[in-house]
UniProtKB/TrEMBL annotation:
Transmembrane segments: none annotated. It comes from Reyranella humidisoli. It comes from the Bacteria. Residues 10-248 form the MmgE/PrpD N-terminal domain. Residues 269-429 form the MmgE/PrpD C-terminal domain. It holds the Pfam family MmgE_PrpD_N. This is MmgE/PrpD family protein.
Length: 449
């Protein structure tokens, strides 16, 4: 790759110069939807083992108590809170997805900005603008190295999420262009995350670090911690190190016009998004054929479907999140696709385990990541041919606002049935009118009676 000077400064100027009035209403609303979904998935993940163990570990070394951990009474320092809230939001793979890159943008981004809002005065419009800008930067950096980055084994949510957290935090801190470049430089040298860790608690380390290190990078830059002038596109910068021919158009074209947050997808199911079209088909078929026994199943999808989720032989609920065979089998047996279907007990269910062995899987690059085809042969000799072009929750078939609210209410009820989550819902929708968002996270902590 030939180095190209001026790329990071151009991105930095965009971050610095963009004002609230430059952000379209559609982007503002999508930012609110993404934050609403963040609270749902962070509440769902706040008491999982990875969060428990990470909190226990970080708590031994943290003297700070300024920041909130979503869904928990404990308080900790802001950098650790950013780590824990990002890990919790992503642990179930239930977070939003930017389909062109398969980045999960909000998990590493929102925790960094929310932690900062507890130690610096931040208004609602400032939060939403910083969020939209961070979302823009991480997805554009992801677009520059897609589609080859993810299949090589890089966990793109982590490798690119650190840029989003740094960019958004730099905006909230009011950094100038030079210091924003420095923030992006410190972020670029901390970019990391491997897909080999998917399905294991270790996945949460790089997602948590993306939030923590992005915030840390911006705080360092604020103090004058300098970096190279071209960390993204320099001769030995991020793009060169990743070894992909850069897609410059995805990185730079349409800045300030084509907002990436408007191309967001919010999940109705806690599983890899490439599995979602299959889950739509399975749940609809099960509803219409509640008592029909299945002989075998053939699924066809985008190559990414098989690359990441062709895992019939699994043993844990964590692995189930990225197993198309398990998720679809559970949907066909139980007629459900919730968190209860991603437990060790469900993985060991004899009927589901037997059905996982009856899959034939193939890929077709003409099928998009939000589409799928599935043939089901039943024991009565019939073949049922199913297909969908746009999974529920995708930007082509988005969830309604009320459905995202319902997702938050459902997870809040599972987490703490007596806690009233409505004030949090109201506060998120009213962010564009808020003068101070420092209490937003407190609304996601149950009140003990």
């Amino acid at each position: 790759m030939l180095p190209r000077q001026g790329v990071t400064p151009e991105l930095a100027r965009f971050i610095v110069d963009t004002k609230w009035d430059d952000l379209p209403e559609t982007a503002r609303h999508e930012a609110k939807r993404a934050l609403m979904n963040f609270f749902a998935v962070a509440i769902a993940g706040c008491r999982t083992q990875p969060v428990e163990l990470a909190l226990r570990t970080l708590g031994e070394f943290s003297g700070g108590r300024q920041a909130t951990i979503v869904g928990r009474p404990e308080r900790i320092d802001p950098l650790s809170a950013a780590f824990l809230n990002a890990a919790g939001a992503n642990v179930f793979d239930y977070c939003d997805t930017h389909l062109p890159t398969v980045v999960h943008p909000t998990s590493p981004l929102a925790p960094a900005l929310l932690a900062l809002s507890e130690i610096r005065k931040v208004t609602g419009p400032e939060l939403l603008l910083a969020f939209a800008l961070g979302f823009e930067i991480e997805c554009r950096v992801g677009g520059a190295i897609s589609p080859g980055h993810y299949p090589k084994g890089w966990h793109i949510t982590s490798t690119c999420g650190v840029f989003g957290a740094a960019a958004g935090a730099a905006k909230l801190l009011g950094l100038d262009s030079e210091r924003t470049v420095w923030a992006l430089g410190s972020a670029s040298t901390q970019s990391a995350g491997l897909c080999e860790c998917l399905g294991w608690p270790a996945k949460s380390v790089s997602v948590g670090n993306a939030a923590r290190n992005g915030l840390f990078s911006a705080l360092l830059a604020e103090k004058g911690f300098a970096g190279p002038p071209e960390p993204i596109a320099g001769a030995q910068g991020f793009l060169a190190a990743m070894g992909e021919p850069p897609n410059w158009a995805a990185l730079l074209d349409g800045l300030g016009k084509d907002w990436q947050v408007t191309n967001n997808s919010i999940k109705p199911y806690a599983a890899g998004f490439v599995i979602h079209p299959l889950l739509d088909l399975a749940l609809d078929w099960k509803r219409d054929h509640p008592d029909v026994a299945i002989e075998r199943i053939a699924v066809r999808g985008n190559p990414l479907l098989l690359q990441r989720t062709d895992r019939a032989d699994i043993a844990t609920g964590r692995e189930a999140q990225v197993s198309l065979q398990h998720c679809v089998a559970a949907a066909l047996v139980l007629g459900k696709a919730g968190l209860d279907q991603l437990t060790d007990a469900c993985v060991g269910d004899p009927a589901i385990k037997a059905l996982r062995a009856k899959f034939e899987c193939s890929s077709d690059d003409r099928i998009s990541t939000i589409a799928a085809e599935m043939d089901i042969w039943t024991v009565d000799g019939r073949k049922h041919a199913l297909s969908t072009q746009a999974a529920r929750g995708s930007s082509s078939n988005p969830l309604k606002d009320a459905e995202i609210e319902a997702k938050l209410r459902d997870e809040a009820k599972r987490w703490e049935p007596d806690h009233d989550i409505q004030p949090l819902i109201d506060a998120v929708w009213a962010l564009d009118r808020s003068e101070d968002v420092s209490n937003l996270l407190s609304l996601a902590v149950p009140t003990r009676r």
